[in-house]
């Protein structure tokens, strides 16, 4: 493994671990400080699916992989975590760490996959129309920094990174799930622009606002 | 209607949600046999309280989240698997995470609390050890039951992208090659979470516990996916099960002033309508302290 590949791995790993640790600390904070009615801080954890569309260059790679039998039903998306501060009735503003992961491979044993992993750190805003955070219809807007990692396993292991901007617009509906958590169902549309490349598509996710 | 003050409720258990209300001498410590005798009622309570109308949004959310993650498990697994194979440090960290989710580690924690309880004559330590054991056993029984029904392949032995599900598998085949059947839900994570919840419930004054506990749960989860033992979708239901059993087993711990309804002083009587033995309507007043 080259130094560059190793560095990329460590970077990817750091991102991934930070996701889990942030999520864990967010959960701990919500547990340690029970949310009263006038709560100011919120944490959002969600999983979802997406059907991304890629630029022609990436699509050629994908088509070649698919010709060998590589498949991908859906891409994985996640918000782990988004941390929000309530600025007004029903209005939340904060930072969201989210991503889109897609791997084309027939079987994992074959070591012959093509992956596109997008990691984003966004400024995220949510507005609940009912003016009650966590319940009813809401709209969401995210803008931030994006990093795309493309990994090719075959014939030679290769990893490439692309950085630029991420936009996401959408909304959803929330209901009360427990005393401390609301269940949110979201449908968003994202666009990640890397100058010579792009990825965009819808993302459906379900998560808990704590 | 008669006004009758019938009884004073002396709930003398002095264990409370705050350190200043705690008196370890008065704590009831379950006997060894109780741990096993409580298991049927723990499991019954879990079933009765989990599948309720009020819990429908939570159960629906967990089910939906799990379904979505099942669809994308392969992607999430790949992100963890590659660094596990190529980075020595991550390899070690992942294996440490897995070992914190296994029985040796958790019963090691039981041993530590037990030793503290015996050597320091600490009743709270003894109770924590007993409740961890009880909650691990109760969680383990239900988790095993679900595993034996769902029959999902672990990533390590998966024949399909996200593992084959063999619902109601041949139980002899299950025993012969359990990795082909026992992924859903995660026993490692559910028992780790139930251990953590019991500790947290026994030491509520220690505010740092969740800040350490949840990152450890995340660490265990990363390790389980990276080492190809579990899929990410094996976790939401496992976490909910472990959390529920932890809460059920420790339910009796907080019968103190802190359990009074918000705004009610311990010196104010709790007045309730009731019927006398002759069927006459009466009012009952009691004090809880």
Question: What topology, given as strand order, has the largest sheet of chain A?
Answer: 1-3-4-5-6-7-8-9
- Biggest interface found: A-B, 51 and 40 residues
Give the tally of β-strands of chain A.
9
- Which range does the strand content of chain B fall in? under 5%
Percent in strands of chain A: over 45%
Rounded to the nearest angstrom, the radius of gyration of chain A is: 18 Å
Pick out the low-confidence regions of chain A: none
Average of the residue pLDDT scores of chain B: 81
List the defining traits of the structure above.
heterodimer; A: 210 residues; alpha+beta; eight-stranded antiparallel β-barrel; B: 289 residues; mainly alpha; three-stranded mixed beta sheet; 10 helices; 56% helix; globular
Commentary on this structure:
- The complex is a heterodimer of chains A (210) and B (289).
- With 210 residues, chain A is an alpha+beta fold.
- Chain A has two helices and nine strands; from the N terminus they run H-E-E-H-E-E-E-E-E-E-E.
- An eight-stranded antiparallel barrel of chain A has the order 1-3-4-5-6-7-8-9.
- In chain A, strand 6 (136-152) and strand 7 (158-176) form a beta hairpin.
- Chain A is elongated.
- The model of chain A has no long low-confidence stretch (mean pLDDT 84).
- By secondary structure, chain B is mostly helical.
- Helices cover 56% and strands 5% of the residues of chain B.
- A three-stranded mixed beta sheet of chain B has the order 1-3-2, with no helix packed on it.
- The longest helix of chain B is centred in the N-terminal third of the chain and has 31 residues, at 56-86.
- The two termini of chain B are 28 Å apart.
- Residues 1-21 and 256-268 of chain B have low confidence and may be disordered.
- At the A-B interface, helix 1, strand 1, strand 3, strand 4 and strand 9 of A face helix 3 and helix 9 of B.
Question: TL;DR of this structure?
Answer:
The complex is a heterodimer of chains A (210) and B (289). With 210 residues, chain A is of the alpha+beta class.
């Amino acid at each position: 493994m080259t130094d560059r590949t190793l560095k990329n791995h460590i970077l990817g790993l750091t991102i991934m671990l930070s996701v889990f640790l942030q999520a864990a600390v967010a959960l701990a904070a919500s547990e340690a400080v029970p949310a009263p009615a006038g709560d100011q801080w919120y944490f959002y954890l969600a999983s979802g699916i997406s059907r991304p569309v890629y630029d022609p260059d990436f699509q050629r790679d994908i088509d070649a992989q698919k010709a060998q039998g590589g498949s991908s039903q859906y891409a994985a998306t996640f918000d782990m975590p988004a941390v929000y501060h309530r600025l007004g009735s029903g209005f939340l503003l904060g930072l969201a760490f989210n991503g889109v992961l897609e791997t084309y491979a027939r079987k994992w044993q074959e070591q012959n996959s093509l992956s596109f992993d997008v990691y984003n750190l966004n400024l995220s805003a949510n507005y609940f129309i009912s003016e009650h955070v966590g319940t009813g219809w809401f709209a969401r807007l995210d803008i931030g920094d994006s990093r795309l990692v493309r990994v090719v396993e075959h014939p030679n292991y290769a990893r490439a990174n692309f950085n630029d901007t991420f936009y996401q617009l959408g909304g959803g509906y929330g209901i009360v799930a427990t005393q401390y958590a609301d269940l949110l169902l979201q449908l968003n549309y994202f666009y990640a622009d890397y100058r010579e490349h792009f990825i965009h598509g819808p993302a459906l996710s379900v998560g808990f606002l704590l | 209607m008669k006004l009758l003050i019938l009884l004073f409720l002396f709930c003398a258990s002095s264990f409370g949600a705050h350190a200043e209300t705690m008196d370890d001498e008065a704590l009831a410590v379950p006997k060894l046999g109780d741990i096993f005798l409580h298991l049927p009622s723990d499991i019954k309570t879990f079933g009765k309280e989990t599948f309720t109308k009020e819990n429908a949004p939570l159960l629906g959310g967990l089910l939906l989240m799990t379904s979505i993650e099942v669809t994308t498990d392969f992607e999430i697994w790949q992100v963890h698997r590659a660094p596990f194979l190529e980075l020595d440090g991550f390899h070690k960290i992942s294996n440490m995470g897995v070992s914190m989710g296994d029985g040796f580690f958790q019963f090691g924690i039981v041993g530590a609390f037990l030793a503290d309880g015996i050597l320091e004559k600490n009743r709270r330590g003894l109770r924590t050890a007993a409740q961890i054991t009880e909650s691990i056993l109760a969680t383990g029984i239900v988790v095993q039951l679900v595993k034996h029904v769902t029959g999902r392949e672990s990533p390590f032995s998966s024949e399909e992208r996200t593992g084959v599900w063999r619902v109601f598998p041949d139980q002899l085949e299950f025993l012969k090659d359990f990795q082909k059947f026992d992924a859903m839900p995660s026993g490692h994570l559910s028992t780790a979470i139930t251990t953590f919840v019991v500790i947290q419930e026994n030491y509520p004054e220690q505010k740092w516990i969740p800040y350490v506990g949840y990152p450890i749960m995340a660490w265990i989860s990363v390790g389980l996916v990276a080492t190809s033992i579990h899929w990410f979708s094996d976790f939401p239901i496992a976490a909910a099960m472990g959390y529920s059993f932890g809460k059920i087993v420790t339910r009796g711990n907080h019968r103190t002033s802190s359990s009074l309804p918000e705004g009610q002083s311990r010196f104010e009587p709790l007045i309730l309508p009731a019927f006398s033995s002759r069927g006459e309507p009466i009012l009952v007043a009691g004090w809880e302290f």
